[in-house]
Amino acid sequence: MKKTLLAIAVTGIMAGCSTAQEEPSNPALETTPEKVSYGMGLVLGERMGNDLPDLQMEQFLQGIQHGHAGEDTNKRLTREQIQEALMAYQQDLQQQQEQQYEELAKKNKDAGEAFLAENAERDEVSTTESGLQYEVVEEGSGDKPTAEDQVRVHYTGELIGGEVFDSSRERGEPVTFGLNQVIPGWTEGLQLMSEGARFKLYIPSDLAYGPGGNQAIGPNETLVFDVELLAINPGANESGNEN
């Protein structure tokens, strides 16, 4: 978990303000201090909705009262005890997040393997020794690149459910990059293509971004790319982009 203990203490302590509680009587909102006080409570409550869903409202309100009073005699926990509780909460939350991430990674892995197994049965699809699958949409007539070459391509990247996560076509501008600078599935797949060809690449997660994922790509996602190889080594002035 990336949140610091300070972030939990400040922005995380009000998360349960949406917890069902008896609605208090409506105090006046006429003076500036009254409005500011209400506004501060409202903003903190909104910010905490996702940080501490199990907030205990009674204990929380008492903590505010004791803290605002500024009298040590009223305080029921020492700073050390509060720190210990925050650390324990952080550890528990991190364990929960890790477990959820592992479950998602397994789910994506299983779904990808099932997709590739079914996809491999199609006559149009070929499978390499590494497990990469490809489908020839249009043959090219030029040379094939090596792993040391620069290539210029148009592509659309999708998850196996059909969700587009990246597309040079949508941006209206092809990209240029070195084949040794991208995911293994691209490095291998582009070397199968002749200049001018268009392939669909079905890339297992271990040839893509693996259990770590990447931005919009979850852990162990199998990826589908519709790729056009426009040019090999198009020129030193072309800007490089890493996929």
Automatic annotation (TrEMBL):
GO terms for biological process: protein folding. The keyword Coiled coil applies. This is Peptidyl-prolyl cis-trans isomerase. PROSITE patterns: FKBP_PPIASE, PROKAR_LIPOPROTEIN. Residues 79-114 form a coiled coil. Belongs to the FKBP-type PPIase family. Residues 121-147 are annotated as: Disordered. Residues 1-20 form the signal peptide. Its EC number is 5.2.1.8. It comes from the Bacteria. Keywords: Coiled coil, Isomerase, Rotamase, Signal. It catalyses: [protein]-peptidylproline (omega=180) = [protein]-peptidylproline (omega=0). It comes from Marinobacter fuscus. One of its GO terms (cellular component) is membrane.
